[in-house]
């Protein structure tokens, strides 16, 4: 047994280094592969800044971040926001923040959680490897910030703000989920920026070439080639490349928002896995410190208290309930995976034949690297976790007079619960599936988007607002159709139309069909 | 490899620009909120920040999201008694919540208002929107002439009452030392010789016997001593008087009289504009004086001293006699605010309505009794209409007393400022 690293609750830079050294040694033993760490000690006010810039170390200026900041500082004053627990930047080196008010125990927890947990997740998970380039992001953010402020100088704050507002409105539609993007590098971006402007303009002219087409107007609709030929799910990209009226600098702003969307995309897809992974490792690493005698009884008690608060899951009927806590779910799944490897039961052998009794470190790393929330839950949510959390599914069908309990944590329900919960984390289930359907390149240049509902769930009431933003970017009429196997459920237009126009169009279509 | 960096010394206000952008965007809302806050506040309590609240729906950043309806299925934790196939009654339609998107972030309660703090400076800026607020720095104000005597060393002239005995005697002693010093030394030397002589054995000397020598020495000593004695004990030249300089002492307290017509013709809108005017004056005075009293006098046909609440928010009906307020103000000055100790300011707001017979009376009271006592009297007439008798009466006053009388017609709050312009420019000279 060694001597504890520290006994008081005060931290010093020296102690932080010592704890980090010990944690790093242990992390290495557990096979955690990380980017180099950069730990920054900051004050509470700076933490608020960090919070409100959505975890970007440098961001462009925009009112929405100001709103976030005001909100954060208010919550902080009211004491609603406990401790700024962890903000960590997916970059190389990986930046984590420690708040000066925290105790030594808390600093050690955050180091284990962020600098070894999240950090190894960023480096290992396939979505991050595919979609983000940790070594280039900071440079890119700096470039973006500078570019935006130059635009503000040249074109005025309002003009820039309008474009950014509109881009933010469709920021969630800025990713090709099935196509690997080219990694971004700031130097390359700058070099190509000029080229891009000129090239794009020439491309555009190509799309919008208006050669008189004699006798083509009376072609039947079905024979006419749509543009784009296949529906496009990356709305921002489509606008950046095709919007007829955008100035080059506006296009560049669209691109900046799109690149950021791309950078945050994996985080939206791996919340449970990522938080669960970080929580599992802070728990495992700090406990290992305790086993080695490097931390005191008091330290570990205080630690367990914080840990419990982090993974607390109120039940569905509690006033504090606001959905499933990703920390809880992720932590439970990883912990149970370890149990399945170390002490498998018959049930585990039946459910996880290729994992039960395996090497837990390897199994956990495999799980962390090759999945996103949806597939991770589908693959690894065990009956025991379902039982522990007492999960049950409720179906709310607007055509039924009652809610229906469709599955609970019993033998008959495990698989159902697993599928239903996994689907809940599927992005297209969480966000409406909207794609670029057609552009009328020969006519009024209008853009038509198509919404494909899942389970008849309609679009929310912001849709008209969002469409206004799309219209601002596109510059010509924008339509949005909600379409369910050939029946048109709803349409939205910007500029708005009278209902009679809608009806006429419907009749035309039905007449044609 | 881990680097630990202390960033605490780096800039704090990374968010300042974004915050400012936010305020800029919601200017309209904030102005409205500030206007409401002013209604609630006392004018002596204007200098603080404010919680501003904006309806959350106005701040929403729209995104495509699912609406309600269709078939939704959600997995929840913490099952207690449900079994598969249970049917639960739905709440009557129209009650919110429901099984929304489990990750919805802003479904908490009391979140339909977005509340945030603005600072005092921001508050004032929104209050007097677009009037570049004067830099309310300490300007050299014309002040009541009170003086304070401060000790300023000693002078050689003064009245006997101010004679400083110690200093005078010290001077005398010094003079005596300097004048008699050499003679005293001589005396000491001679006395030493004398003692030596007396102690020495008698050596007969026919020419200059010891006795003669002693006598000669004694005579010399006596002569010297009488010379020394003739140095005057104290002389005109030694006298020192305490010197006091007269320093003008600005009175550190000011009193501000707010006079307002509350007859039936003054609407709440009129009063709000007047309130802003009073606030601005108060803020200006607050920069200049340590202590400020505010006296509220409201009048219709008769005047009354009231508290602020009543001043701004109670309605009266009936006609208007302005002079009643002026008379009351004069009485209050007499009773409580001696112009020797108080800087008196007055601000009068009215819609210009007055009984015609009364206007000349007002002019008279002002020019003869009030204006000589006050630092500054400002009158604002809140009306878009043509002037009436009172205005013309006051115009005469302004010509007669450009130093201490300002008047302005105000149609809305933005017109308030010129009155202050005058106030400052006059004093800045």
From TrEMBL, chain A:
<feature type="domain" description="SpoVR-like C-terminal">
    <location>
        <begin position="432"/>
        <end position="484"/>
    </location>
</feature>
<dbReference type="InterPro" id="IPR056174">
    <property type="entry name" value="SpoVR_N"/>
</dbReference>
<dbReference type="InterPro" id="IPR057270">
    <property type="entry name" value="Ycgb-like"/>
</dbReference>
<feature type="domain" description="SpoVR protein-like N-terminal">
    <location>
        <begin position="10"/>
        <end position="428"/>
    </location>
</feature>
<dbReference type="InterPro" id="IPR057008">
    <property type="entry name" value="SpoVR-like_C"/>
</dbReference>
<dbReference type="InterPro" id="IPR007390">
    <property type="entry name" value="Spore_V_R"/>
</dbReference>
<dbReference type="Pfam" id="PF04293">
    <property type="entry name" value="SpoVR"/>
</dbReference>
<protein>
    <submittedName>
        <fullName>SpoVR family protein</fullName>
    </submittedName>
</protein>
<dbReference type="Pfam" id="PF24755">
    <property type="entry name" value="SpoVR_C"/>
</dbReference>
């Amino acid at each position: 047994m060694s001597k504890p690293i520290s006994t008081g609750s005060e931290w010093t830079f020296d102690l932080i280094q010592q704890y980090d050294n010990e944690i790093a040694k242990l992390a290495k033993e557990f096979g955690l592969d990380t980017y180099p760490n950069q730990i920054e000690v900051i004050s509470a006010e700076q933490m608020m800044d960090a919070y409100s810039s959505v975890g970007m170390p440098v961001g462009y200026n925009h009112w929405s971040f100001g709103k976030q900041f005001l909100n954060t500082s208010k919550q902080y004053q009211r004491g609603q926001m406990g401790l700024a627990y962890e903000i960590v930047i997916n970059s190389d080196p990986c930046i984590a923040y420690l708040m000066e008010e925290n105790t030594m125990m808390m600093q050690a927890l955050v180091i284990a959680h962020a600098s070894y947990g999240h950090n190894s997740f960023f480096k290992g998970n396939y979505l991050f490897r595919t979609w983000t380039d940790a070594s280039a992001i900071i440079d890119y953010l700096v470039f973006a910030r500078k570019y935006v402020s130059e635009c503000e100088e040249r074109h005025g704050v309002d003009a820039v703000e309008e474009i950014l507002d509109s881009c933010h409105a469709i920021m969630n539609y800025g990713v090709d989920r099935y196509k690997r993007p080219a990694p971004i590098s700031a130097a390359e971006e700058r070099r190509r920026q000029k080229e891009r402007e000129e090239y794009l303009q020439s491309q555009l002219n190509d799309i919008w070439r208006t050669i008189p087409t004699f006798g083509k107007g009376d072609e039947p609709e079905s024979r006419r080639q749509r543009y784009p030929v296949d529906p496009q799910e990356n709305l921002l990209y489509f606008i950046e490349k095709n919007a007829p009226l955008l100035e080059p600098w506006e296009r560049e702003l669209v691109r900046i928002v799109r690149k950021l969307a791309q950078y945050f995309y994996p985080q939206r897809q791996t919340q449970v896995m990522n938080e669960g992974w970080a929580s599992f490792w802070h728990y495992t690493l700090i406990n290992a410190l305790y086993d080695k005698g490097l931390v005191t009884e008091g330290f570990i008690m205080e630690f367990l208290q914080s840990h419990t608060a982090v993974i607390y899951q109120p039940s569905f009927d509690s006033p504090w309930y606001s959905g499933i806590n990703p920390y809880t779910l992720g932590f439970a799944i990883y912990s149970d995976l370890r149990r399945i490897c170390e002490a498998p039961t018959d049930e585990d052998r039946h459910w996880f034949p290729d994992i039960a009794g395996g090497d837990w470190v390897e199994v956990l790393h495999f799980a962390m690297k090759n999945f996103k929330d949806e597939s991770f839950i589908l693959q690894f949510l065990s009956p025991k976790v379902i039982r522990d959390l007492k999960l049950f599914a409720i179906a709310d069908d607007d055509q039924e007079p009652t809610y229906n309990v469709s599955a609970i944590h019993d033998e008959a329900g495990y698989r159902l619960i697993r599928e239903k919960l996994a689907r809940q984390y599927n992005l297209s289930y969480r966000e409406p599936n909207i794609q670029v359907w057609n552009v009328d390149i020969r006519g009024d240049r209008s853009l038509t988007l198509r919404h494909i509902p899942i389970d008849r769930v309609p679009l929310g009431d912001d849709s008209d607002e969002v469409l206004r933003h799309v219209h601002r970017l596109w510059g010509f009429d924008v339509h949005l159709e909600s379409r369910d196997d050939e029946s048109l459920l709803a349409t939205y237009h910007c500029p708005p139309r009278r209902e009679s126009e809608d009806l006429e169009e419907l009749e035309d279509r039905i007449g044609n069909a | 490899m881990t680097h630990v960096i202390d960033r605490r010394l780096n800039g704090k206000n990374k968010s300042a620009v974004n915050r400012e952008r936010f305020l800029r965007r919601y200017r309209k809302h904030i102005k409205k909120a500030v206007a409401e806050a002013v209604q609630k506040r006392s004018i002596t309590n204007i200098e603080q920040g404010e919680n501003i609240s904006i309806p959350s729906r106005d701040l929403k950043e729209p995104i495509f999201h699912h609406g309600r309806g269709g078939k939704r299925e959600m997995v929840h934790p913490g099952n207690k008694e449900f079994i598969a196939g249970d049917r639960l009654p739905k709440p009557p339609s129209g009650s919110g919540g429901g099984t929304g998107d489990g990750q919805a972030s802003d479904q908490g309660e009391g979140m339909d208002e977005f509340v945030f703090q603005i600072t005092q400076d921001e508050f004032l800026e929104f209050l007097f929107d677009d009037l570049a607020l004067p830099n309310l720095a300490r300007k050299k104000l014309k002040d009541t002439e009170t003086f304070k005597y401060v000790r300023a060393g000693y002078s050689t002239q003064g009245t006997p009452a101010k004679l400083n005995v110690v200093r005078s005697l010290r001077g005398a002693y010094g003079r005596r030392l300097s004048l008699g010093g050499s003679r005293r030394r001589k005396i000491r030397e001679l006395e030493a010789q004398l003692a030596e002589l007396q102690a020495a054995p008698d050596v007969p000397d026919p020419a200059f016997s010891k006795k003669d020598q002693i006598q000669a020495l004694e005579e010399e000593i006596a002569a010297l001593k009488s010379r020394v004695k003739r140095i005057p004990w104290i002389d005109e030249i030694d006298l020192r008087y305490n010197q006091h300089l007269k320093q003008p002492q600005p009175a550190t307290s000011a009193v501000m009289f707010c006079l307002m017509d509350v007859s039936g013709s003054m609407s709440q809108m009129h009063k709000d504009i007047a309130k802003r005017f009073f606030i601005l004056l108060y803020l200006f005075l607050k920069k200049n004086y340590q202590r400020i009293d505010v006296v509220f006098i409201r009048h219709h046909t008769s005047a009354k001293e009231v508290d602020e609440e009543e001043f701004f928010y109670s309605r009266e009906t009936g006609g208007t006699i302005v002079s009643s307020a002026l008379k009351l103000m004069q009485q209050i000055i007499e009773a409580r605010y001696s112009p020797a100790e108080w800087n008196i300011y007055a601000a009068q707001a009215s819609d210009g309505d007055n009984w015609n017979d009364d206007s000349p009376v007002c002019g008279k009271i002002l020019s003869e009794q009030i204006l000589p006592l006050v630092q500054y009297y400002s009158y604002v007439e809140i009306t878009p209409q043509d002037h009436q008798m009172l205005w013309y009466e006051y115009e005469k006053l302004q010509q007669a007393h450009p130093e201490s009388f300002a008047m302005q017609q105000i149609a809305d709050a933005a017109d308030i400022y010129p009155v202050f312009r005058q106030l400052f420019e006059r004093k800045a000279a």
